[in-house]
Amino acid sequence: MSSASPLLTYQVAMPQPQSHFFEVTLQIKDWQQPQIHLQMPVWTPGSYMVREYSRHLQDFKAVDAQGKSLSSCKTAKNHWCVAGSGDLTISYRVFANDLTVRTNHLDASHGYFNPAALLFLVPDRTHEPISKGLSTNSSKFWAIKVLLLPGSGVVTCQLAGGTISIW
Predict the structure, then answer these.
(1) How far is CA 21 from the centre of its chain?
(2) Distance between CA 127 and CA 115 in Å, rounded?
(3) 71-84-78 Cα angle (round to 5)
(4) What is the pLDDT along the chain (167 residues), one digit of tens a residue?
(5) Which of 40, 70, 97, 115 could form a disulfide with 20 if both were Cys (CB 3.0 to 4.6 A apart)?
């Protein structure tokens, strides 16, 4: 593996909030191993109940930098394996119609997600920084609320043409 760690970038989109689906894209830069393992947590700290977040995941797809489909398989209820290296893009949708702080909810009035219930993690890479983005095609303005620990990062919001992006 190269000395630089791969950069993980998550993009969460809400193109049709009334459908209750978040669309997630995970971009992995410079992956040097022949395959990558992805996991979705099954519970959230502070809520000590197995929630099986992956049951809401649909339309899993993995492609390389040229857009070629990569071989992938679900190896456990919350674990996927993708054959590929270099720059990889993982995309999937998550159904979000559970109005609690432990899961995800999305409709025409608002959207809320808990990263544990929405985003894959790469085992043995949980200590590395990640990049996150959020976008919606909603024509009405949505207030954006983000919790950050002191010194954990900067959030920049843009509203242009009905799209909100957060970095």
Answers:
(1) 12
(2) 15
(3) 60
(4) 444 565 888 888 888 889 999 999 999 999 999 999 999 988 877 777 888 899 999 999 999 999 999 999 999 999 999 999 999 999 999 999 988 878 899 988 888 888 889 999 998 887 777 777 666 665 555 666 665 555 554 444 444 444 444 44
(5) 97
Q: In the numeric block, which tokens belong to residue 135?
A: 């976008």
User: What distance in Å separates the CA atoms of residue 65 and residue 37, rounded to the nearest whole number?
Assistant: 18
By the 10 Å C-beta count (0-12 exposed, 13-18 middle, 19+ buried), 91 is classed as middle
**Residue 1 burial (10 A CB sphere; 0-12, 13-18, 19+):** exposed
Q: Hunting for tokens 């949708």 — which residue is that?
A: 93
pTM: 0.81
